[in-house]
């Protein structure tokens, strides 16, 4: 597969059995062959997406000192502001030319401590307090569950297999800003270095600027250009481990443009879908028919921490 397919999700949600099965097969093929797809008719409104992109821009327009008051502090919480060049997704390259803000679900058991210690949840300027963004987090959770249901059926599992293993909502919503460039980048520096995502699936909402590239199985880089009225979805490392490489966790990157968009900021929002921390990621039986398990079992939470520690 040399092109990223566009899949209409509405048939899975409201269609008859044959139409649902067609969507399941399309998702299986996309996850197996390239690890990326565009979904249309997802029921997340344009208005809500635009509101989130606006709130993201408003936050990143704040003075750096104000944003740093909400700084990301450690991989255990994985929340807050991440400054320019702080993250290095490709360890062989200089720091990425982007800034970000991570938002996770606030666990009820931590509310009292968090309110005392973390301005990420309490500062008026924090996106974590914005109602549009909180509504968006919930809408992304619901969409991710639909995709996970389709993936479960594609792998001959009970429909609720993955949603049950994601019911603690350990997901991360990430606002991203790639600034316009007023000076040349460092050697090999890009907006987001070559990497794979850490969790099960990712939902990506991008503006019209573009720059995302995906590496095919043959090693060719292809553009994942913005397509109106669609959402990019890709499978991550834990889904690859779960499925014994039946589904792939594809490398991707965000490059610096070589046209007029060099002088434009790029904004995107990624929703990283993670299993419950105590979920054991062990090779699925339906994925062992042709080869033995590639990976030993690992807890989802342990894997995420190891990847975050390596990234920061």
From TrEMBL:
Keywords: Iron, Metal-binding, Oxidoreductase. It comes from the Bacteria. InterPro entries: DIOX_N, IPNS-like_FE2OG_OXY, IPNS-like_sf, Iron_ascorbate_oxido_reductase, Oxoglu/Fe-dep_dioxygenase_dom. Gene3D superfamilies: B-lactam Antibiotic, Isopenicillin N Synthase, Chain. Residues 169-275 form the Fe2OG dioxygenase domain. Pathway: Antibiotic biosynthesis. Belongs to the iron/ascorbate-dependent oxidoreductase family. This is Isopenicillin N synthase family oxygenase.
